[in-house]
Amino acid sequence: SMSKPADEKDLVQAVVLADSFNSRFAPVARSLPRALFPLAGVPLIDYALNCLADAGVHECIVYCRSHYKSLASHLASSPQSKRFATPPVVRNARQPLGDAIRDLDQSRLIKNDFILAPADLVTNANLAELLAEHKRRRVKDANCLLTLVMRSTTGGFNASALMQAQERSFIAVSNADTGCLRMLSPAGMDKLGRIRLERAALLSCGRSRLWTGLIDLGLAVCSVHVPPRFTDEFDYRSLDDLVRGVLEHEEILGHTVSLHVLGGQEYACRVSNMNLYALVTRHLLDNWVYPMTPASMSGSRAATEHQVRQRNVYVSRLASVHRSARLEKSVLIGPGAQVGSGCHLVNCVIGSNCRVGDRTRLSDCYLWPGAVVSSDCNISRSLLCHNSTVLDDSQLTDRCVLTHGVRVGPSVVLTNCRLIVRSGRSEDSASTDEEVKQQLGKDSNAAVYKSAYSDRRDEAGDSDADSGPENDEDSVELEIWQTTLMADNVEYLSSESDSSSEAGNEVPPAEVGEDHFKRELLDVLQRAEQDKHPVDTMVVEINSIKHAFCVHIDRLKAILAYTILLYPLLKCEKDDESEDCQVEITPAEHFSQ
Amino acid sequence: MQQQQQPAAKELHSNQLAMQVVRRLSKRLQKRQQAESGATAADLIQMVRREAVACAGRDPVDAVSQNACRRVLKILREEAVHSLGASAQLLSSLQNNLFSERPIDYSQVKADSLRDAVSAAIKELSLELETSLDDLRSHGAAHIGENEVVLTLGYSHSVARVLQTAAATRKFQVIVCDSGPNFSGSRMLQLLKTVPQIDASLITDAHAFAVMSRVHRCLLSAQTVFADGGLRAECGTHGLLLAAKRHSVPVLVCTPAHKLAPAYHSVERANVYLNPACLLEENLSFAEVHCPKYDLVPPGLVTLFVTNLGGLAPAHLHRCLAEQYHQDDYSIDAGEADGDAGVLDD
């Protein structure tokens, strides 16, 4: 470990946010904070601390909202925290990032430019270089408030696995020479494969560069002016708010944000949902986060701890693996674990002191310390938390999660995103006993998780448990595994951009409120014709009902054109005078405003 | 990341590394002898063995530090036997081991009596390590003839010095394979271009088979030499040696003797896996990408080992081993029995 530098100007500080303030890992994170989730046998926060320690950070301040004690005790004993000059300090923050940084400002802990990182970040990027670059940039341009660090996924819109698992990705426009950020927006394509760019951003930029498929890491190098800025703007709650605020009010306050994009050999990813947990574990085992390998991260006696076999198989020297067990590839077996005969393991992480019975097949599953799997089981794509048990002859396939201390009975088949918690502990409604026994086995002590707070669930559906239990459970579990949220985002954006498509390209979808608007518009035209209003009055009236009905200007143009063409036809029907009626349609100049 | 993850970036030649270890050990031995008056040879031997285990722990790929510890152990054991008297010396020879009734008891020997002899022997060892590269150069240069075509792979300090020494007296041609993904061959080429008598050219690894029929000799280096003639060498060596065997081209491996490990070759030996991103930028979920740093070359492909003690045929490696290390020190394990066969617990 290094010592504190004499000069305060050389002090390198980092702020780690150990609470992500969303409920992606809901029932699991109730007893164990996300920062302490074991990822390949090592608590998640250790990866971030490792990276910061490599970058030469002297002092680390960790903010958390809940589980203060467990986090503090972990930081006191972790081998990673010994690498800092002073051991990391844990502080409490009620709300997301905003409150944490306000607390920083009040307590006057920050002396220099600091690194802001989330606790669930796994990266091998060279943060020391980033910090140096930021300092150089500040020397040239003193208004640079922070350097946002994002990761690009190659291939543009061809989603790689990381992209697919993300909740959202970003598009940015930055100056090609200085890296100054001009525009940052969540990305989404409409049905025609187009994205929105702001003209103002592109015009004001010198030589601009367009980034697509950026992943938000929550990582930034902040200058010493960021905490006072948060104190001034008391409604800033996240980094997004800050960046947006700076970009919008650039002319007023003169601050700028820079963008640094990681790519190529630098790996960086946040473990923000279950899919990413699985993906990052796989990447870690497959050596993509070199030089952080499971062997090197596992503690002080690192190199002797694991025996490294071919195809990324790491077996702890204190584990006992039966000779006939087949460890095919990307397997990590922790100390004290036992693997029985005839097993077949692919892409697994077996935590410390776990037991795997005979003739069991495990693939893509993650066993936390103390989990027990009995014989003849077949488990794939699942997570078994601390001290959970799966009894004989069971099958858990496709994204099941067993939380702490759950026991799932013999000969049970669980598929498709089942979240199993201990019954009697969860405050949510549990099924009847018979159902439990049938679903989860006769020796189980568990219940299927039904969240009381689901974003998708209607109020009506809450009381009516029988009508759609399958759908509701699916929606909760899918939310946790993040399979549909990305699609939803795209849908939302496409409906907005649909309205901006050229009229005539496709038929604009009609909405319920629009009929009312059309009728109002017809009335306006009628009155205008009767009372011989000038065009200006008509325009004012149309504008006022546009605002009253909250119609988008492009929709208005379409509906107005339609209505004007419709109006004489309606008049003909009403008047019923002659068969061929000719109406003069005045030229477009009246409507050119 | 800490230094252990990038052994290549250390730029310490193997003999310098070995000398560091020996120096450290001699200091600790001296301290131990001064501190504890009742120390016996057994204690000292135990201490050095623990250091060997620690070296293996720090870097499983590095065999040179362990070998240096073994040399020191050999010195200790020899001196202990010497001081035990003539009868013990008789016992310790190879033939008599079969008939001896009890093993040599090192705890009989006091550490004080060994002090002078051991320090003198360690000084000799340091000198030998320091001059190992120079000796290697002269022995290696003798194998290259006038107007021959020599093939080599990547950058190696020993091979570069051998070629430079040979170029002092004759002209010849060198073909260098650039070994990906770090392309160290270009570094070798830059070095060889400064030598007037050498006509150096660069080819890709894949091209080696095609030019092998024109090559007179292959001159390579290895990171470790195993007791059965296998190698742990730079990635790409195995393919090169197979091509050489196919064309019956003699292969010379220039290594100093302290790289000779008493373990047998096995594909499960320690290897360093680098970041796959240097091969493939996008991590495709369906592809398994491995980027090993070293090749584990099976025995039977090398014609001659050129060491600082002279040329050594693969069949006689065991003799060199027996001279350098004591039989009891061949296996130094981490205290836990490993399932695999293999003498050295890598």
Beta-strand percentage range of chain A: 15-25%
Q: Could you state the order of secondary-structure elements of chain B as H and E?
A: HHHHHHEHEHEHEEEHEEEEH
CATH superfamily of the largest domain in chain B: Translation initiation factor eif-2b, domain 2
The first-to-last residue Cα distance of chain A is 70 Å
The helicity of chain A comes to 25-40%
Q: Give me the count of strands of chain B.
A: 10
The global form of chain A is: globular
Determine the mean pLDDT of chain A.
76
The main sheet of chain B orders its strands as 3-2-1-4-7-9-10
**What does the main sheet of chain A amount to?**
9 strands, mixed
Instruction: Give the mean pLDDT of chain B.
Output: 84
The helix-and-strand class of chain A reads alpha/beta
CATH superfamily of the largest domain in chain A: Spore Coat Polysaccharide Biosynthesis Protein SpsA, Chain A
Largest sheet of chain B, if any? 7 strands, mixed
Strand content of chain B: 5-15%
CATH fold assignment of the largest domain in chain B: Rossmann fold
CATH architecture label of the largest domain in chain B: 3-Layer(aba) Sandwich
CATH top level class name of the largest domain in chain A: Alpha Beta
Please describe the topology of this protein.
The complex is a heterodimer of chains A (593) and B (346).
Chain A: E1 13-17, H1 26-29, E2 38-39, E3 42-43, H2 44-54, E4 59-64, H3 68-77, E5 89-92, H4 97-107, E6 114-118, E7 121-123, H5 127-140, E8 144-152, H6 161-165, E9 170-175, E10 181-186, H7 199-204, E11 208-222, H8 226-232, H9 239-248, H10 250-253, E12 256-262, E13 268-270, H11 274-285, H12 294-297, H13 302-305, E14 306-309, E15 313-316, E16 320-321, E17 326-329, E18 331-333, E19 338-339, E20 344-346, E21 349-350, E22 355-356, E23 361-363, E24 366-367, E25 372-373, E26 378-380, E27 383-384, E28 389-390, E29 395-396, E30 401-402, E31 407-408, E32 413-414, E33 419-422, H14 433-440, E34 446-448, H15 459-463, H16 469-481, H17 485-498, H18 512-531, H19 535-549, H20 553-575
Parallel strand pairs in A: 1-4, 1-6, 4-5, 8-12, 15-18, 16-19, 17-20, 18-21, 19-22, 20-23, 21-24, 22-25, 23-26, 24-27, 25-28, 26-29, 27-30, 28-31, 29-32, 30-33
Antiparallel strand pairs in A: 2-3, 6-11, 7-13, 8-11, 9-10, 9-11, 14-15, 33-34
Chain B: H1 14-35, H2 41-58, H3 64-84, H4 86-91, H5 111-130, H6 132-141, E1 149-153, H7 157-167, E2 172-178, H8 185-193, E3 198-204, H9 208-211, E4 217-220, E5 224-225, E6 231-234, H10 237-246, E7 251-254, E8 294-297, E9 304-307, E10 310-312, H11 317-324
Parallel strand pairs in B: 1-2, 1-4, 2-3, 4-7, 7-9
Antiparallel strand pairs in B: 5-6, 6-8, 9-10
